[in-house]
Amino acid sequence: xxxxxxxxxxxxxxxxxxxAGSMEFATVSLLLGGFAPLNVFLMTLMINGRHLFYGIxxxxxxxxxxxxxxYLIFGLCDETFSINYTANVPEGVDEGWFMFFVTLLNxxxxxxxxxxxxxxxSCLHFDFEGLEFVMTALFIVIFLxxxxxxxxxxSSIIGIVSAILCLLVFGSxxxxxxxxxxxxxxxxxLRGGKRMEIRGDIHESA
Length: 206
Prior knowledge:
Elements: H1 9-17, H2 21-32, H3 37-47, H4 50-57, H5 68-74, H6 78-86, H7 95-120, H8 133-149, H9 154-170, H10 176-205
Helix pairs in contact: 1-7, 2-3, 4-10, 5-7, 6-7, 6-8, 9-10
């Protein structure tokens, strides 16, 4: 942002309000372009569509967290999801507050890193060749952690099968969005089916 003429305050403000790294990079070009809220919405949805699946996975965990839920939803990024979903909360520790402070600390580290980068980034120069693999490695770790945590691997298998099918049908350039739509639709249908099954059991018991 500094190289595009923005002051130090802008990247700090963005890290406070946009807890999504890829979207922060995209926001720079969006700010320099014309006012197009629909384009911003669609781009945000495409870049951060995976957060929909994070949210579905955390519905039960966030269920009884009170007002903390508002911040937990806002701060649900890759790293926060990975920790809060797989963590074994110690006995006697409130799970809601545990997840809240994990989210808060991750947010703090994010803002601190962005602030240091905004102030000192132009003075420091690093060779970032190969660094792009970090995000791929992170998603692999998140997938493996979820696989090991779950007794049922339905959601993981649905994701793998949907991605392969959409890759074959739409090709490598256009398969991502259809994959997310298919996965989201299947998960919502399965969740709705489970609710109807529970209601049926309650009705029979009554």
